[in-house]
Amino acid sequence: MIGNTIGLIALALGWRRSILTWPTQLLSGVVLVGAYASAHLSGGVGKQLLVIGVAVWGWWQWNRGRQQAQDGSLAVRFATWKERGLLLAGAALGTLAVGGLFTLYPSLSWSPWADAYIFVGTLVAMVAQARGLVEFWFAWLLVDLVGVPLAFHSGLAFSGMVYVVYFALVLWGMRDWWLRSRTAPVLEGAHA
Predict the structure, then answer these.
(1) pLDDT confidence of 188, banded at 50, 70, 90?
(2) Which DSSP string do the residues of the chain spell out, in sequence order?
(3) Model pTM?
(4) Which of 3, 69, 113, 183 has its CA 20 to 30 A from that of 103?
């Protein structure tokens, strides 16, 4: 419950384009590693370790200031077609690989393909967020469309409610980043 709540805060900070989104996501991952380890869910531990790694990378990306707008905030933009293709290919191949792994080792997941989809979709969303891409909100939206029903179906009502709140934040954040991308100057080499 604590890890998921911190994760919600991290998403809200991401919507605000705050650098604090990354250390907050990192803290959420650390708390969730402890929770999954105590429940002997090694797949959940592995997922959170990767999430922690992407959070460190995202923090580094935003700290570098490469994506800063003139007003000092994070410059957001739509991905290029090449970037979209890479994100989609990574999502598809990653889901196949992780789903296959979860199927081979059933102790890692009680719902291998849905968990793989959520896991890889989360990583794709975080990578797109670290790059300041509006598409990160679409990736979260697609994760939530599977995560909400799966959580409730699995008897994880609190996680399901967290996903419902995520869904609302995602829609709000998507609108905000979309509007900001339309007013931001186009970065060299970045065509939507």
Answers:
(1) very low
(2) -HHHHHHHHHHHHHHTT-TTHHHHHHHHHHHHHHHHHHTT-HHHHHHHHHHHHHHHHHHHHHHHTTTB-TTSSBP-BPPPHHHHHHHHHHHHHHHHHHHHHHHHSGGG-SSHHHHHHHHHHHHHHHHHHHTTBTHHHHHHHHHHHHHHHHHHHTT-HHHHHHHHHHHHHHHHHHHHHHHHHHHSPPPTT---
(3) 0.77
(4) 3
